[in-house]
Write a structure and sequence with these properties.
By secondary structure, this protein is an alpha/beta fold. It is built from 16 helices and 14 strands. It has 2 domains: 100 residues, no CATH class; 270 residues, Rossmann fold. The chain is globular.
Length: 415
């Protein structure tokens, strides 16, 4: 019912958006004298804001058509290596012959599309052969394709890691830190040849008992039945995934916005002022951010509820009690893979200590294979996007990967 009401509301705004779009075009026409007045500019800015706030945002494009390698522009082609019902393995194939480390970036399945990591991919492309997990909107997956939960997430990762083969490094951003660590434990336990030489965990909830955030408190002060009743709903027709139980993207977006409501209000106020002044560069920067931020996807109810239960309420991973498909995920199994934990000093989603816990629970991993980096003055989003990511954090990750790249060590020995 909730999803249906949302769809009806969106449809009801259709005529108003149509009028706003045409009014905006008229007011900004260079031959319209009203558009050059303060009143006209204010009206145009208001219509622009209305259109942005009521529009439905689809899945964005990465738009990474080229990269720069040794000062030379190199074409990049997006290809799909492997498809599954709830996600695909995407490859950013560079038009050059280089023996760079292979890197699998695991995008979060927490509301936004994998394009949220566009800046992450862009920074790593010049020095790595980059792949990314590209998750699918649950409302587009028919019921006939079955379920998808946290255990399925781990299974997908295992399949994709094995598909890429030995010496594949992994970079997990936020939510996937838990399933990536789980997959690592399973690979290490069986001494699998595709066990990654290095894993980088960034701003992930390995142990949410460490410095709990508001997100953690909400998850622990309510029962699973509360979440089932209040945030889970059915996808309505005519969507391909109709009748599938999901945690809808529009509810997730509302939660994101509520967490920092004052900051979002201030940003929109500044955007309105930029539009009135005609400062298109500043307006476009804010507009681009929110176009990505408002592009949200539904996630399956079973994945969401199992994550709440396993990660946020029972803390099974740090306790060494998480069992997936009948296999115990034992942190003590990690003995060979080098681990880098990165946290943001101002992260209000996965606070300081929650990701570093991965180093603490890996009791059989030698300290020489553990690294920790605290990014000062950086919030959650800044860990993997923006200037601090590009100039400070990404170089640290690249050095870590190179230091533990098995193929690189073989090349040096041969030389």
């Amino acid at each position: 019912m909730l999803y249906t009401l949302y769809e009806l509301q969106h449809t009801a705004f259709g005529p108003a958006r149509f009028m706003a779009d045409h009014g905006l075009t008229l007011l900004r026409h260079p031959l319209n004298p009203l558009g050059h007045t303060t009143a006209g500019k204010t009206m145009a800015a208001g219509l622009d804001m209305f259109e942005q706030l009521t529009r439905r945002y689809g899945k964005p494009h990465f738009g990474l058509d080229e990269t720069s390698i040794d000062g030379r522009r190199v074409a990049v082609e997006e290809t799909i290596l492997l498809r599954k019902p709830f996600g695909q393995l995407k490859h950013f194939k560079r038009d050059c012959q280089r023996d760079d480390p292979r890197l699998l970036i695991v995008a979060p399945l927490s509301g936004h599309f994998s394009t949220l990591l566009r800046g992450t991919v862009e920074a790593m492309l010049p020095d790595h052969d980059v792949y990314i997990t590209d998750w699918r909107d649950a409302r587009d997956v028919p019921l006939t394709e079955g379920r998808f939960d946290l255990d399925d997430y781990v299974d997908y990762l295992l399949d994709w890691i094995k598909e890429l083969g030995p010496n594949t490094h992994i970079l997990a951003v936020c939510q996937p830190a838990v399933p990536v660590y789980g997959a690592l434990c399973l690979l290490e336990a069986e001494n699998h040849p595709c066990t990654p030489p290095s894993v980088t965990l960034m701003g992930g909830p390995i142990d949410t008992r460490e410095a709990p955030t508001e997100v953690n408190r909400v998850a622990t002060t309510r029962s699973l039945s509360w979440f089932q009743k209040h945030v889970i709903t059915l996808v309505p027709p005519p969507n391909a995934g109709m009748m599938r139980q999901v945690y809808p993207g529009f509810l997730q977006l509302a939660g994101f916005m509520t967490m920092n409501f004052g900051e979002h209000v201030l940003k929109h106020r500044k955007l309105f002022q930029h539009l009135i002044k005609g400062d298109e560069d500043s307006a476009e920067k804010t507009r681009s951010f929110y176009e990505e931020y408002r592009s949200v996807m539904d996630i399956t109810a079973e994945f969401y509820l199992q994550t709440i239960d396993v990660v946020f309420q029972r803390h099974l991973l740090p306790k060494g009690e998480w069992v997936s498909r009948g296999h115990l995920i034992d942190p003590a199994a990690v003995q060979k893979t080098a681990l880098l934990a990165i946290e943001g000093e101002l992260d209000d989603i996965s606070s300081v200590g929650q990701t570093r816990a991965a180093l603490d629970i890996s009791t059989n991993l030698d300290d020489s294979r553990k690294e920790y980096f605290l990014a000062e003055g950086v919030g959650h989003y800044g860990i993997f996007n923006g200037s601090r990511w590009r100039n400070v954090i990404a170089p640290r990750v690249k050095d870590f990967i190179r230091a533990h790249d098995q193929a690189g060590r073989r090349r040096k020995k041969a030389a």
